[in-house]
Amino acid sequence: MGRVAMTSQPIASVLVVDDDPILCAVARTCFQKFGASDISVAHNGLDALEIVDQNGGPFDFILLDLKMPVMDGVQFLRHMDKRAYEGLIGIVSGEGPAILSLAMDLARKCGLNVVGSIAKPLNMTRLEELVSKQVVLQRRAGQKVDEPLTADELEAALNSNQIVAHYQPQVAVASGILCGVEALARWQHPERGTIPPDMFVPLAEDSGLMALLTDRMIERVISDSAKLNNIGYRSTISINLGASVLQDTAFPDKVGAIIERSGLEKSRFIFELTESKLVEDSLDSMEVLARMDLAGFQLSLDDFGTQFSNMEQLSKFPFKELKIDRGFVRSAATDERSRATVESCVWLGKKFGLRIVAEGVETTMDWQFLESLGVDILQGFRIAKPMAVDDLLQWAETYNAARDRTKVAANA
Predict the structure, then answer these.
(1) Taking the domains of the chain in order of start, what are their residue ranges?
(2) If you ran DSSP here, which 8-state letter would residue 278 be given?
């Protein structure tokens, strides 16, 4: 468990630790955009420690490179652990996803509040995404909200329609057609603003509210589907399942009844599970997944490649889809280890006859590389960010019109 982070206030003080002056300048611009007024820069870990000790108080956010002279980022993390640092840490590195993942695991085991990682070269969009997830703007001028989120607060939100769905489009590689969306939970807090899922989903799991959160998301998706149907959208909608839901043997019947009442086809719903939630499988989870498949729902193995039981999970459970983790996809076009990982995932998924989805697609180079491997579906900022259903409708209209124009020009 991490220390209590100061995530409910805007980020005011920032320390950028990197030996690349261009990256530091780009990062400074990004943090200024989000309202940071105190931005310090250090070009190695030792200088950064001196700044931390002289600052008189903890920085709200530290953006940390791993490979630096004098003192590297990993050593710096251990020193911040000794100082009981309670702010946020974002890690950036050009050393590939393996070392990024290892450094993040180290930071979390130290109890540090690491919020994400970015592969070099620094992508401004990715940095803005990482920072914006942590900045919860105050809806009431001058109000301070330091208290951590509570289970009672979350339960009240679940019962008062504060949990909404944002949708990230998925497109078919071969045709470019909008073929699916992933529904992602957002908490529209009346005082704290929009709260991202990584700040409340773990709370839902720990407090026994994950089943209720899943129910609310399904209800919201069904409600939004009426608008989607109006534009002729009849394709798939993906929803994430928490680990605790897999222990509820009544879940397949319950969710089946809800969707049958809506008149929607069960096959349109894809339920995503991460590998980590399946590592310690039980009789209950095996029953739930088997019955979900028998009922006509689709199952997707999310964040594929991040655990060590890939072959076992694919052979044991009735998955129809495999989603390659964004951490590998983002750097696959330029990093040999990431490329090899993605190639292996695609090969393995094809051998099992699965539909292959790559998330975290941010550049045209990513798109072209994944297309060359035979990936079926792409998802990421290169296509669109997650958005509310009304924004999705507008985006889809613009996207389809542009795609039609491109097809006409190509056939001319």
Answers:
(1) 13-132, 151-411
(2) T
Please write the tens of the pLDDT for every residue from 299-327: 998 877 665 545 777 778 889 999 998 87
Helix or strand run (H / E) with residue 75: helix 73-82
- Could you tell me which residues come within 8 angstroms of residue 376 by beta carbon, excluding any fewer than 6 positions away? 172, 173, 174, 355, 356, 357
**Tokens, residue 72:** 């590297």
Q: 32: which 2 tokens?
A: 């200024």
Per residue in 104-129, pLDDT tens? 888 888 888 888 788 777 777 777 77
Pair 288, 248: CB distance under 8 Å:
yes
The 8-class DSSP code of residue 246 comes to G
Closest Cα to residue 378, out of 181, 167, 173, 240? 173
Domain 151-411 has CATH 3.10.20.30: no
**Looking at residue 83, what DSSP letter applies?**
T
The tokens of 73 are what? Answer: 């980022």
How would you classify the pairing of strands 193-195 and 178-189? antiparallel
Q: Is the peptide bond before 121 cis (omega within 30 degrees of 0)?
A: yes
Q: Tell me how far apart the alpha carbons of residues 66 and 120 are, in angstroms, rounded to a whole number.
A: 11
- Counting every residue written for the chain, the total comes to 412
> What is the identity of the amino acid at 27?
A
Q: Quick one: tokens of 185?
A: 């939970």
Specify the CATH number of the domain 13-132. 3.40.50.2300
| Pairing of β 377-379 and β 355-359 | parallel
Q: Is the CA virtual torsion 115, 126, 147, 83 positive or negative?
A: positive
pLDDT (tens digit per residue) in 204-261 = 888 889 889 988 999 999 888 877 776 677 789 999 987 778 888 999 999 999 888 8
Rounded Cα distance between 395 and 387, Å, is 9
Q: What is the pTM of this model?
A: 0.72
Residue 185 has a pLDDT of 93
